[in-house]
């Protein structure tokens, strides 16, 4: 990019910035970096600059780059949730694309700053990840890169099994657990003791069955890190690194549709307000519709498109504009809701603050939107002796529930640690919270072997298959057995 | 608010190539997986029939990191169409029927895909196949040695083509120059800093070698036997042409009479009639005596047959005679009938087994299915240790 182009870009970003503020957007300060295309694919694969090295990131980079080179997809921009935000623009894009992307980026930056699910993220994660990467590189030097890579491979197979509420919940320390246990059954020191303990006071703390963990534990990663047998310190450190990075990415996984929809809503608003030449306006419209169209594969949805249309619909309804086919909106008492005009923008900002994709779809996906977006459920079915993916239902409630269901626990099966001292042999008993969707047993078996490697003792996993309770076991010889209960 | 709320910069990112190392690790991993599955891969018909240099797709399974996930083929999902989609519409073809657990799917097209196809040229695959293979017992022989040429990257120059840019040295030079100017924090790269890797052509003596590819084309050789035969010889030829560029190859087909044929004929000929393998050996000996003086040539005769033959003892005598002229004699027996279940040899193989039990220069293999081709190659062409056993 030439110096004069850079000056022009800077001037435009200033205009866009001011316009965004005028519309009521309040983004973090944002640093824009103009980079070659390949850097964008690299950042996309790693999730953040300076993340630790792993072959899966190299694979993702290669796939995205190849898909771009075959003309199948293109990344225009990438922006990271940090304070200040870091945004990356592609150097060989046109000036109009830069304007388009800068406006889009500011939407994301506002979202990062205001959405409640992002409030506990580490906004200095770039530095944090650089530290992680250095530590892992150091381990590679010390223990050999193959050793470290193998261990990372093992850990990354369970990387989705942390507790999503972990950043919000203050955890009891081991000492507190013990204190609470001793205090249990003891008289409480309050003025109303005589009322609570009418049945008389027990003299000693109740002896309790030893249970470990006391409550089923959702944070398998942390459990393995803290209690895995025979793990070296560097290995525990790697588990914690992977876990904390997944926690950082969690809000993005949970708000993909909203976040993209919100940014798209704003790039349109801001670009429409700019003083564009007619060629630029045409290019903007073309770009806009290429981003906001059904995805090429009919097996997927385009989150940009879906999020954008829902937000536009919310704005319209809260502005009190009725459309043909709109049902009259009623409240829970069946009374007609007459919305005063002009609430649309305010409503958008509050949705952006409060919701995640699950609540967003549950509250705001309507019958007419499902038709407009042409959403449907589909399933594998046999047609004339051949397996085909066949559309099942276009009913909006089915579609909505199916979408929400697939996003529960950010799309991952929920596992809990039920017993860390199973059969008093220090074995690990896990349970899958079965909700009607059965597990891929082939993959599950491979993962269990990895859990066994981390735990150092036999591992069990309880689930359901074909309406029967099953228990998979990975024994010390690495062999998997399956029992039907 | 006094501090600026936005900033723009355009640093030199051209040399930023962090992902390349991890991409290389991924490529290495693909190759590892392929090496582990070579037995399955090399017996694929479409690879054998592909032209040299042609790209073939090789399914790579088991490389992905597994996660505990829902069964991808059991779930209901949500998709999005261009408008007007109705119940019962077919949106994509499902996974193909279990051919070795789902080959034939195209990665990225349908949901739940857990492997992808890596693309390799036949030459690249051949490189991997042959990495651990070598002509056994190869000796320095002959007066007319041919020089083979290969390129070795061993010099650094200031001029060169972009793909040969040595990034590390270039950055180092840039750093040095900037430091000299007192800007030790700057990494600005100029043309004068660029360093390129360059190569030299090195020559090394090639040893003279001739391989006799002999093939039973009698009526008892069925479709399967012919396929295995083709498959084995295809890889053997690729191997020789890749690693021993100056090796001569003599093709002989045989039923009751032996015939010297061209490579094309060798692969396409099917014949009929009885079997007298001794005539193939006789012809080979004749050709050796006329054209390949054993003092000047490393000689490797291979014969593939189903083991049903007239005059087994005559064959044994001829192999004994050849043994003194040759570096290694290979016999491959292809079985698809009752012999297969006992893994034993047919009469001709049995005769060899008895006669050459303790002779490392006569190597026998039995091939019962496609997967045995690779172990057979390894047994014949094991580097250094000829006793590497076939499965």
Automatic annotation (TrEMBL), chain B:
CDD domains associated with the record: vWFA (cd00198)
Coiled-coil residues: none
Database matches in InterPro entries: UPF0229, vWFA_dom_sf
Any Pfam family matching the protein: DUF444
Protein name: Sporulation protein YhbH
Species name: Capsulimonas corticalis
